Amino acid sequence: MSMYPHRAMGAVPPNNSARLNELLDQIRTEFDTQMRQTEGYEHQIQAQVQEMQLVREKVYAMEQAQMNLKQKYVTRVWLDQGKLHEC
């Protein structure tokens, strides 16, 4: 005899089996939905990371161009000052 007489041991009744299958299907559906949402977020993050990398590269290029222009300017000023002192 079972320790819990109100619950007999044995197979799951058919209506409970159908309910279990229904609940498992709902869980699968929710899991698939969450996976698609996660993939969407990952795609968005990757796109933003790529955009940030592009911005970083452009800023670096602008810094390099600014340093080159500054060096040319300083050189030009130095040469012009040298010419003024010669006169």
Architecture overview:
Keywords: Transcription, Transcription regulation. It holds the Pfam family Tup_N. By secondary structure, this protein is mainly α. The protein has one helix spanning 14-86. It is rod-shaped and about 115 Å long. The relative contact order is 0.04. The model has no long low-confidence stretch (mean pLDDT 89).
Count, helices = 1
What is the averaged pLDDT score?
A: 89
Structural class call reads mainly alpha
Instruction: Give Rg in angstroms.
Output: 37 Å
Q: Which ranges are low-confidence, i.e. pLDDT below 50, for 5 or more consecutive residues?
A: none
Distance separating the two termini? 121 Å
State the share of residues found in helices, binned by percent.
over 70%
Shape: rod-shaped
Give the SSE string: H
Characterize the largest beta sheet: strand count, sense, and whether it forms a barrel. Answer: none
Strand residue content = under 5%
Structure summary, number of beta strands: 0
InterPro entries: Tscrpt_rep_Tup1_N (IPR013890)
Domain Transcriptional repressor Tup1 N-terminal: 19-73
Pfam families: Tup_N
Keywords: Transcription, Transcription regulation
